[in-house]
Amino acid sequence: MEYKSQFLATRRRFLRNLGMTAGLSAVPMSWASSVFAQEELVVEGPPMPDIPATEVAENVYCIVSPWGFPSVENQGMMSNVTFVITEKGVVIIDSGASLQIGRMALRQIRKFTDKPIAAVFNTHYHGDHWLGNHAFVQENPDVPIYAHAKTTSAILSNQGDFWKSLMERSTDNAIAGTVVTPPNEIVGHGDEIDFGDTTVRVHFYGTAHTPSDISLELVEKRIVHVGDIAMNNRIAFMDDGSFLGTFKAFDALEKSVPEAFWIPAHGFPAYDLIEHNRRLFEGIYESAERAVNEMASPGVVKDYVLEDERVRYYAPFVNGFDENIGKYASLAFLEAEAAAF
Ligand SMILES: [Zn+2]
To answer: How far is the CA of 128 from the centre of ligand 1 (A)?
Structure first.
């Protein structure tokens, strides 16, 4: 097992600490065994190697993750952790996929500031965006963790354990020790949270990538973190989302914050992020609509999608395209079919 040596090291460290304590005063055996039991329960996977943060604007940093699905090699590192240094402390937007990734993010944060962690925001309930909450609660037990109500209820009901075990399985337990730490503060559209020199405004426009994505505007900076509503040259999980809902969110965000600098949770921030995502998604969805209008069989949808000029433009450099385009085409077809009635 990957983490066996880690476990043994932890166990040795524990025995050493216990020996030191026992040397100072008599330790009741029941106490020692209960602490030992706790220690065995908190076996942890190996630390996540550092990925240095990129400064994307003044006091705004992104730990940009390489592309990938969770694996033994990447230890679950598949999405960005963004942080903003404000007058009132450090604000985290999406905390990564594990305790280890959250701790790695903290190490990067501490290269720039020793301010306390003031808040964590989770853009939606996919586990790569919130399983790292555990690390920030260890750092500041009182930290508010903000999310949409449906994100919190999804994590509390089934998505919490689902994502934790999915990440454990796909990383050979590299995330071991991560505890499901759900959001503890509910936010909705239009809410503003004051961090002194920085205001975070919440945008919510219904189902886009999931039923409860929030986008987070850094008002004074004209920057918006869009979670997974848009990605930079990546295509991912759309099973919980809606193409029409995504277009609606794009329109609303662009209208509300014109000429914003957009930060995605996958890939690098960019001014033209939404523009590119819209063109690719329109290529997919309008091809599906064409198939529905022609009452074509679902089998031809993928061909229509792959023929589309916009899709052909993006296909060569969008990560995850080949793995996902068939599923995207089917999902778009089902949605276009439902919308036609
Ligand atoms: Zn997602």
So the answer is: 7
